[in-house]
Amino acid sequence: MAVSVEEVSSSLVREYLSRKGLKRTIACMDEEHPRTEDSINNRSLLRQILNIEGLYRKNKVQNSPLKTLLEIIVKYHIRGIKNDTNSSNESDPIQPSQAVSPADNSPAVMNDRKTEESITAFDISQQNKSRSDIKTSSLPETDIRSGHSQTSFHTYESEGKKIQPLLSYLQDHESIIKRELEKRTSTTESTQRSKSNRIRRGMMAGPVASTQQESTKKRQNRRHEVPQLILRKEKENSHLRDQPAGTGSYQKHLESGLYENTTADFIVGHQQLQSAPERLQRENSFEKLGRETLKTKIATSLPRKTVADLDMSEMVLDDLDDDENMQELSKVSFQRTITEPSFTTRPMDQNTAMELKAVLLGSSLNCMNAEWRNQGFTFSETHDLRYGIVQRKGGPCGVLASIQAFVLKKLLFENTESSNMGLHRLSPSNTTREKCLISALAEILWRAGEEKQAKIAINSGRNHFTPTGRYKSEGVLEKITCFTVDNFKDLHLLLEQHIEQFETGPLGCMLLTISAVLSRSVEKVKEDMDVPTTTLIGAHGYCTQELVNLLLCGKAVSNVFDNDMELDSGNGNITLLKGIKDHCDVGLLSLFEHYNICKVGPYLKTPRYPIWVVCSESHFSVLFGLQRELLTYQDKGLDFDLYYYDGLANQHEEIRLTVSIGKLALSRHDDTDLTPPLELCIRTRWKDAFVSWNDTEPIL
């Protein structure tokens, strides 16, 4: 059997995540890169394929064996590279702290470790090498071939000689110092620009542990500490300052190992070789700088507790059996692990995509227009309309109005946080309206799945199939991963994890429509329709009544009257027209009923909540009230308020309508031909009602 490199790599990563207990990361990986039949779920089989049985056995006998196969492989290759570059180095590269030789534990080294614990083993070895160069070398040397300056100081043991030759040498070579500094600065800047360019091009994805600026700051902080250490040493040996040069005072400083083998040490040495008055003038500034640096180091060196640190005392890592199934291992839960939804995933295939296009658009050669591809469920930021979903362009208004109606149901009548807030319920917080949106989407999909299961379409960001034959690609269906859940709680949790794709993502409207069709199934959607060839999206991208009914009632029936209706077409042919079978939570009012084109039955006209989707002039909007009692009002002369919202109308203020019913309303009835269509829709529910727009310009 041929082994796929991609599947082996994916299985190796999953094994690492499973052994580390990173369940959320595994869930995200399964979403974006679903498992296939070729995925390797047995750890023993994975070791055999990778040919690392010998490495695994060696790792098992270690005092602290590594837990994952990936770590074992990485350790082997790092050690191999280290042995190739430096055959004499037999230390373990996985533990860099052991690279320091015990012979290097001089007082200066120990002092450096106490003052700065973040210095790596490589830096310490370089400092030790620099100090040995200082002791053994007698003249500063510059290696022109390597491009690095290697300098050592000349020390004087004779009392008759002065320190002036060293000062004069530094002054003579001031140009060399400047060139070296400029060279290193330009190199740093070019490296930084190169790295930023690679990041912009996508060559370096993911978080960066340490940037060039941070490394430069660390080196500068270490260089600032050198003068402070020298000043402290001078205070302890203040009696040496007044002695003549050459008595050994500077020799002690050189042997203490405080000078580093860098260009910056020339500057430090130059400052120390200046006259005593100048040195005393700078002492206070150096002390201040040293104190600030010390405070910064203490603050940054304090340990930062993480979630893993808090739970470490309660977690026990056991060495599990070799043949343990990694799928079971990924299900191991710790005390603080958040409950994950149970679901199955399936990447979109071309056959399913063709069926979806056929029921949505009529043909697999048709594509969604830009109005659908760029529409999500984004809320308005207008103060009085924060509950409203904004529609960018015409087309998917039926979907948006249906979702809006269920969001209002959750916000006004099922949200415990705003149940006693009165009119303030219409100005919800960002968190509240997002929760209402999640609950609304979950209820719609759960009803479409007959309250047995639901499916959610999520954009994975990668193509799952290559289109062939009679299929026109639009770059959406190819990237969808379908999640199937069999209980409402898991459906709600899964939507909560991916709500950004619906709320702020450009494909939110499309993903919800596809999810509703898949939850109902393409076959049942066709059975719901009077004519199986009917599409859910009609001409010019408008929603059909079948799509609106699917979202409101869970079935894609073609009519709005109650129950089914049989029509005798003659010659024994009977046509079955399918309607609404039960009362709905959210209703519908249609202008077509006013013109006797259709009749809306009581199941939709009198819903369980005072919220209606309004169909007027081939456009869908929402009408709602704040009291459920108005559904049972029978008294004559009664007034109540209704609120109207149209996501496409670019509303900037609240539209509140006062509806008056009864004889008093008849006397105030306006019989002109300029009656707003919205009033005509309201009168299909409350006959002879008079509507006051309360100083708002009527919508004609």
Q: How would the blueprint of this fold be written?
A:
Elements: H1 5-20, H2 23-32, H3 43-50, H4 53-60, H5 69-85, H6 107-115, H7 121-136, E1 141-143, E2 148-150, H8 164-172, H9 174-200, H10 212-236, H11 249-255, H12 264-272, H13 276-301, H14 307-311, H15 326-329, E3 344-347, H16 350-361, H17 370-373, H18 397-414, H19 430-448, E4 454-459, E5 480-485, H20 488-497, H21 499-503, H22 508-520, H23 522-528, H24 545-553, E6 565-570, E7 573-577, E8 587-590, H25 591-594, H26 602-605, E9 611-616, E10 619-624, E11 639-645, E12 655-660, H27 663-667, H28 677-685, E13 690-692
Parallel strand pairs: 8-9
Antiparallel strand pairs: 1-2, 3-5, 4-5, 6-7, 9-10, 10-11, 11-12, 12-13
Offer a concise description of the structure.
The protein has 700 residues and is α+β, with helices and mostly antiparallel strands.
Task: Report on the architecture of this protein.
27% of the residues are buried. The chain has a 6-stranded mixed β-sheet with strand order 8-9-10-11-12-13. Strands 3-5-4 form a 3-stranded antiparallel β-sheet. Strands 1-2 form a two-stranded antiparallel sheet. It is elongated. The protein is 45% helix and 9% strand. It is of the alpha+beta class. About 21% of the residues have low confidence. It has 28 helices and 13 strands. It starts with a helix and ends in an 8-residue tail after the last strand.
Number of strands: 13
Percent helix, as a range, is: 40-55%
Overall average residue pLDDT: 74
Shape: elongated
Rounded radius of gyration (Å): 38 Å
Please state the structural category.
alpha+beta
Name the strands of the widest sheet in spatial order.
Answer: 8-9-10-11-12-13
